[in-house]
Amino acid sequence: MELANFEFYGTPAGSVVIEEKDRPLRTYEQNETDFTHAVLEKINTFYPEAGKALCEIYASAQINKPYFDYRRVHRFIRCNLSVHDNRPDIGPDGIFRFEFISCPLRGECKYCDILCNPKFNSKLSDREMQVMKLYATSSKTEKIADILFISIETVKKHKHNSLLKLDLHSLSDFITYASKNQIFESHE
Questions:
Q1: CATH number at residue 142
Q2: Closest Cα partner for 132 from 91, 46, 123, 4?
């Protein structure tokens, strides 16, 4: 599932309402597994400290995986994206746009600035580094998939995530960045 153009807001009762372009408003429910997994993947890739904190908070629910996953996403949205406004919380580029959420525990909660307003992970994973190194040597997507024994879609996802993490817009930007910062030399 592609995450783009979502707006969320929290209700006084604690629910999360999802506003999605060309779809009626809906309350986020546990049965939305595709949405849940897509959000968790973004959290774990781009905000791993928040992902770890969410696992810690809801550790007792791990026995029921669908509920465990749902609770983690629900909490992440409530802590970071639950103010209703005119700007999508997940933009057309798929990037989270965090909001300041008024919380009575701000400054006291041990997860302050870990779960709420989480730190973006700009470090490429080993697999992302492998994919980008192959791209930098002029390999094509299909060849990279064959070399690494992964799907073409997975190669594209690693490329996309790498560019997002490094705040770059194209492969040529990445090649310039990699050369300037000697990222492959320091990763071998």
A1: 1.10.10.10
A2: 123
From CA 132, how far away is CA 139, in angstroms rounded?
9
* Segment 75-96, tens digit of pLDDT: 999 999 999 888 899 988 788 9
Q: Which range in 26-40, 101-115, 160-174 is most confidently predicted, on average pLDDT?
A: 26-40
Q: Same domain, yes or no, for 31 and 115?
A: yes
The whole-angstrom separation of Cα 133 and Cα 147 is 12
Q: Which domain holds residue 161?
A: 126-187
pTM > 0.85: yes or no? no
